[in-house]
Fold:
Amino acid sequence: MANVGRPKAVLELSDEERETLERWSRRRKSSQALAMRSRIVLACADGLTNLAAAARCGVDSHTVAKWRRRFLERRLDGLMDEPRPGRPASITTDQVEDVIVATLESTPKNATHWSRAKMAERSGLSRSTIGRIWKAFELKPHRADGFKLSNDPQFVEKVYDVVGLYLNPPESAVVLSVDEKSQVQALARSQPAFPMMPGMPEKRTHDYVRHGTTTLFAALNTADGSVISSLHRKHRATEFRSFLIKIDSQVPADLDVHLICDNYQTHKTPTVKAWLEKHPRFHMHFTPTYSSWINQVERFFGFVTEDLLRRSDHRSVQALEADLRSWVKAWNDNPTPFIWTKTAEQILESLGRLLKRTSGAGH
Structure:
C-alpha cells in the first residue's frame, strides 16, 4: 500500500485573514518574501496539498510545509521572520506593514523622500526601529539610482548585434569598442593637498583653476583588453577620422575591423562615411540610444577616471595629456579584457522585469 503520509491539518481562514493575505500577496512593492508566503497560505486554504501548492507558487514542497505549519501555529504573525533572541518584539505586524507601505507609496510633507526621523515622527516608532524595519526589507529611501530607457525603434536588433559580437566574435576579425571621453579637464587645485596620515585621510581643496580640456579617443579590443588611443583638443568628425586612420594602421591588414560605437553624430558624418566606403574591412555597429552600458569601453573610461582623473592636479593640458598617455601605456603592459556574460535574451528579460515594476509604481 502506498505511503500517503500524515494527514495535513485543515487550514481555514477568517474573512479578515483572507483579506489581509490577499492584500499582502498583491502588493507589488512590499516584501516579495512576505508576498510569496501569503500566496502559499492562500493556496493551502484552497485545499491544495503541499505538492500542489508548491507547483502553483513555484517553490519547494518543504517551503510550503514550513509556512503552513508556521501559520497554523501563529496565524498572520507566523509569516514574519523569526525574531532574534531577547526581549519579545513590541511592534505589531500592522505597524511594520504601515511603515513599509508609507515608505514605498507616499512622501513626507515638504520632502522628496522619507528619513528615519520623519518616519519615526509619523509612525510613533523610534528611529532605530525604523532603521531595523528598512534594513529587514532592504529599503533605502535616501538612495536613488539613475536610468533612462532607450527609445530606439531598433533597440532589440542592436542589442542582439552588439552582444553577438561580444559572445561570438567573427573569425579573422577584431572587435573594438570605441568611444571618446570628451572635455577631460586639466584642473589645478588652488592649494597643495595635505597628505594622508594615520587616522586622517588625504585632504584636498574643493576649488581649482581650469587650464583647458582634451579628448581621449579609445578603441578597446574586446578579446584581449588592449587599447588603441589618441588625444585631440577638439571632438569633431575630422578628429574621429584621424582616429580611424590610426586604428587602420595598427590592426593587421588581413583582419576585418568591427567597431562598436554610440549614436553620436560625429560617427555618422559624410566625412566619416566617405572614409569607411574606401576601407571596406571596417564595419560599424551602433549601440541603442541611451545605452552606453552596453559599450565595454565605458568601463575602461571608468578606470581612467577613478585611477587618474578624480584626484588629478594638472597645471596644463600638456601635463594632463602626458599623464593620460602614460596611464594607457601602463594599461597596455598588462591589459585586462572585460568578460561579457549575459546573452541578449537575458538582457531583454531583465529590462522587461524593470518595465513591469516601473509600470506598476503607485498601484
About this structure: Residues 109 and 348 are 38 Å apart (CA to CA). The longest strand covers residues 173-189. The two ends are 51 Å apart (CA to CA). The first helix runs from residue 15 to 26.
